Amino acid sequence: MNGHLEEGILNDLVDGLLSEAEEERARAHMAECVTCRREIEGLQKLRSELARMPDDAQPARDLWPQVAWRMGGEADTGRKPAAALRKPRTQVRAWQLVAASVAVALFSGGSVWLLMTDRSSRPDPVAEVQRPTLAIPASLEEAFGEYEKTVSGLETILEEGKDVLDPGTIQVLEENLALIDNAIDESREALNRDPGSGVLRRLLTENLLRKAALLRHAAVAVRAQT
Amino acid sequence: MGAIPLAKPSGAETELTVALVQRAQEGDTGAFEALYRRLVGRIYGLCLRMSRDPQIAEELTQDVFVRAWERMGSFRGDSRFTTWLHRLAVNVVLQAGRTAGRRASREELVEDPGLYVRRVKEAMPGTRLDLERAIASLPDGARTVLILRDIYGYKYDEIAEIQGVALGTVKAQIHRARKMVRKKLES
User: Fold this and answer.
1) What is the pLDDT of residues B39-69, one digit of tens each?
2) Where are the alpha helices (DSSP H) in chain B?
3) Distance of alpha carbon B24 from alpha carbon A81, whole angstroms
């Protein structure tokens, strides 16, 4: 003990976990020992500072639409039987839910779409065409379909614009898309094996968004040339 | 010298919360959304501090509420709903951390500590940023225990049970955490 109270005793004292006799011994020691007194004062100060820290934090965006979506219902519905909500209407895989939630984020005009937006000062020739203005899709199938439709629309623009883009650019785009598609496949398969994994959902979400963002940038480049 | 009281004193559940819980258990999504609106700040705050990543915290917050909805039927009212939900959140976060650890132990989850502190400043105006920064710098185990014990007022035996570790381990971690935070604040 080196003549001072052990760390465990000091912490237990601050936490009120010592027996009466132990606390009395500790107090008697502290009455004589400036070092231990300072130590206990420091611990008490920290404890009260931590206890006063706020425990509420506001997310940067409204998370409810995606929560509601994953609950299997719609964000703006009224009452629904719990049993119906607990089970999605159709047998859907976890990765489809992820794609659907990406679609919800895109269509609700949330921050995710803003992240994908070209922030250059030049006017974006595609943004107004591509930026979805729909309300939140009414069903999982619709949302998943909307994601696929958006990606497919962007792929079409890219396909049609291949003639106007530099072959080197096309090659880089295709290589990157292949890499992202591969990553999507891998995370989707992993999510099928482990549907409850938040980390895998995050990976898949990022990959889906990355693909949409890359296609969108490519579409911007095509439109700028035509 | 008395012990410093638990960080967040427990009180009675408000009548409104009780009513909302009952309606949500009957399948009322509107009531569940009202619960979400009332409690999302507390859950997101926990997820943000535990994960140190704003994006992951948002996903974890969603996971917590989705899981809560799925398990509404298992809430019997033995504890306050807010306590039940908070405990669920802790489990979701710890489980996610374990999964992440298994999958990518080399990956550092705090990709941008500056971003984390900026986000905390926006999300929790009035919080002590020096303390937040010091807490965020702690190793996982020590950080978790410090957050649960000293900010959210969990008891040691509850933390040991949640984490599935011995009481002595929890106490050793908090001693380490408090020492490290004090050192950090003094430097």
Assistant:
1) 999 999 999 999 998 888 999 999 999 999 9
2) 15-25, 29-51, 54-70, 81-103, 113-123, 129-136, 140-146, 156-163, 167-186
3) 10
Tokens found for residue A216: 């969108």
Q: Does A226 touch chain B (CB under 8 A)?
A: no
Task: Give the closest residue to B48 by CA, choosing from A19, A54, A161, A163.
Answer: A54
Number of Cβ pairs < 8 A linking chain A and chain B: 165
The minimal CB distance from B2 to the residues A16, A60, A201 is found for A16
Q: What is the per-residue pLDDT across A49-100, written as a single tens digit (0 to 9) for each?
A: 999 999 889 999 999 988 988 887 444 444 343 333 343 334 456 666 677 6
| DSSP 3-state of B28 | strand
Q: A104-136 burial, b for 16+ CB within 10 Å, e for fewer?
A: bbbbbebebbeebeeeeeeebbbbeebbeeeeb
Give per-residue pLDDT as tens, A4-27. Answer: 999 999 999 999 999 999 999 999
